[in-house]
Amino acid sequence: MGSQSVDRRIQLSIISGFLGSGKTTFLQHKIFKKDHSSICIVINEAGDISIDDVLLDDKIEKIKISGGCICCDSNAEFVEKLIDLCGIRNHANADFNNRIDTILVETSGISDPAAIYDSIVNHSILGRNIVVKGISVLLDAFDSNTFISEPLIAKQLACADDIYITKTDLVSNEVVAQKYNIARYFNPSALIRSCSKGEIQNLTEEQTRQFGIKSILPDAKTERVNSYETFIVNLEENTDWNNLVIWVSALLSCHGDKILRLKGIINSPAGRLLVQGVGPNIQKPQRLPKEFYESKNFLVLIGRGFDKTDIKRSANFLNT
Fold first, then answer.
1. pLDDT tens digit sequence for 200-234
2. Which member of 140, 163, 233, 283 has the greatest number of CB atoms within 10 A?
3. Exposed/middle/buried for 107, CB within 10 Å: 0-12, 13-18, 19+?
4. Is CATH 3.30.365.10 what the domain over 10-216 is classified as, yes or no?
């Protein structure tokens, strides 16, 4: 009887999705099911400061790539990091029991996962040492259709092996069904399931009810994606919490349709908090562990069409 060959290459999974779709929460639950010693997580932030890594277990090996998307501006750095991992794993003296056999890549919210995939499989070294196990794309059920018609979201969905509709606990089954139809329209072959707070479930019959796509996306955009901008608002250590809440509320009221993502670490009476928002919607702040109490206060804004000078000028009163 012939023996079946075993693929000993590193298995790599790409986790993608638009800004604020829940990639880090999904990743948190995914890694709990694996042996931490064999995992490496690559975290990509389009901005200059990486935030998502603070939410992941410190026992897991992490590679942070910030200041550009790994599908384009930071692709060379991404490829170099993967080559290093392959070299370490293949080294003759590497501890077999502690070798990396799984890489999870959390892309930035504005990355093209297909381009990341191509850069791996078409590389002479990576193609021999890494197998892309699959592309998982998260689709935010709670997001309004303001951003769902982004051409970039269509590209992300189209290249997915698995699509997870997230935050389904926050919306009705009708809304979930609308997102299901959007996902199915852009990718008829993907496996589509729901993911609420990291827990994966099959969709119900009501959640897969058929809708005409034109009734959901009557104004879907077809032009190329405009460039996104990222900038940082630095805050003083003694920034008044109440003033900050008022300023952020005013900011999102005026520019919520232009600011796609807001993330930051800020000081509050309750301690150091991680603040996140998508469009005009801010999630409940998450208290950070004590090791982050020495980190700086800042907010990262990602969007397009807003005036950075005006926003920074309006933020000056927070530091007075």
1. 999 999 999 998 777 776 654 434 344 566 778 88
2. 163
3. buried
4. no
* Pairing relationship of beta strands 61-66 and 102-106 according to DSSP bridges: unpaired
Under a CB-based contact definition with an 8 Å cutoff, are residues 277 and 20 in contact? Answer: yes
**Helix, strand, coil abundance in the chain, percent, nearest 5:** 35, 25, 35
Question: Which residues does 83 contact at the CB level (< 8 Å), separation at least 6?
Answer: 125, 126
CATH (one of 3.30.1220.10, 2.60.40.1180, 3.40.50.300, 3.40.50.1370) for 229-319: 3.30.1220.10
All residues at 6 or more sequence positions from 249 whose CB lies less than 8 Å from its CB, including other chains:
none
Structure tokens at 207: 């959640």
pLDDT in tens, 128-161: 899 898 899 999 998 765 555 567 888 888 889 8
Its pTM surpasses 0.90: no
Strands (E), the chain: 10-17, 39-45, 61-66, 102-106, 130-140, 162-166, 191-196, 199-201, 229-235, 259-268, 271-278, 281-282, 286-287, 297-303
* CATH fold match for the domains 10-216 and 229-319: no
Token pair recorded at residue 199: 């827990």
CA within 13 Å, CB half, 166: 21
Query: Exposed e or buried b for every residue in 263-288, given b needs 16+ CB within 10 A?
Result: bbbbbbeeebbbbbbbbbebeebeeb
| Model confidence at 115: pLDDT above 70 | yes
Indicate the domain borders of the chain: 10-216, 229-319
Cα–Cα nearest to 29, from 98, 135, 104, 134:
104
Considering only CA atoms, which of 108, 137, 103, 96 is closest in space to residue 120? 103
Q: Strands 199-201 and 229-235, how do they pair?
A: unpaired
